[in-house]
Structures are given as structure tokens and as C-alpha cells.
Write a structure and sequence with these properties.
Elements: H1 2-23, H2 30-44, H3 57-76, H4 79-91, H5 100-127
Helix pairs in contact: 1-2, 1-3, 1-4, 2-3, 2-5
């Protein structure tokens, strides 16, 4: 079981690297690039949607959201581009580091969500 988890983790890291390469390819459609940017930003951001110290839920977001987002992003990339990106990632394995741009993007998305939630609450309070 532990061996399978290690293999899954290695494949996940390799696919994240391949996704970062595929997102830079001009043949990749804009929607695939946008989804890839969000997935990579979330995966590499030092902050999570649900903080890790929260028991069970903190780990579930990493175990579910990142693989699900990765799956979606990889499905949106053209197969030829993805095959080339995976081959390039295998040839030159690099480590994906935490990204300050990912942090900035995630903080911006959180701020936007809080702002939207606040305005929804204000409207609900004014209408009722």
C-alpha cells in the first residue's frame, strides 16, 4: 500500500511538471492554460483552501482537489502537446518550488471570494 502511495505521489509531481510545460506551449488552448494556472497555483501555493492543521479536512483538500484539478487540466491539453510535455518532464526532471505568484493568485482569489460573500450578505440583509 505504501509503495502504491509513493508511486502515486511521484506520478502526481511528474504530471504537475508536465502541466507547467504544456501550459507554456502555444498550441495549448486558453481554457486549458487558465485551468492549468489555477491548478498549479493552488498546488504550489503555501496556503491551502482548508488549512492543514484542521484534522482530516486539511489533508483531504490536498488529496482530492489537486488530483481532481490536475485530471481536468490534463484532459483539456491536446494529447500531442501533453505527450511532448511529459517526455520533456521525464528528460529534465525539475523540482517545482513553492511559487510567490501562486501565493499571490490564491490570495487574490480568496480576497475576491470574501468580497463577493460580503456583498451577498449585505444584499441579503438589505432585502430581508
Amino acid at each position: 500500500m505504501l509503495k502504491r502511495l509513493r508511486l502515486f505521489a511521484r506520478r502526481l509531481k511528474a504530471d504537475l511538471l508536465a502541466l507547467s510545460l504544456a501550459a507554456r506551449d502555444p498550441r495549448t488552448p486558453w481554457l486549458a492554460r487558465a485551468v492549468a494556472l489555477l491548478v498549479l497555483a493552488y498546488a504550489l501555493s503555501p496556503i491551502d483552501l482548508i488549512p492543514d492543521p484542521i484534522p482530516v479536512l486539511g489533508q483531504l483538500d490536498d488529496l482530492l482537489l489537486v488530483p481532481a484539478g490536475l485530471w481536468l487540466a490534463l484532459r483539456l491539453v491536446p494529447p500531442a502537446v501533453l505527450a511532448e510535455a511529459r517526455a520533456e518532464a521525464a528528460r529534465q526532471p525539475r523540482r517545482l518550488a513553492r511559487s510567490p505568484w501562486g501565493l499571490a493568485l490564491m490570495l487574490g482569489l480568496y480576497a475576491l471570494a470574501l468580497w463577493g460573500g460580503w456583498h451577498l450578505l449585505l444584499r441579503a440583509g438589505a432585502g430581508g
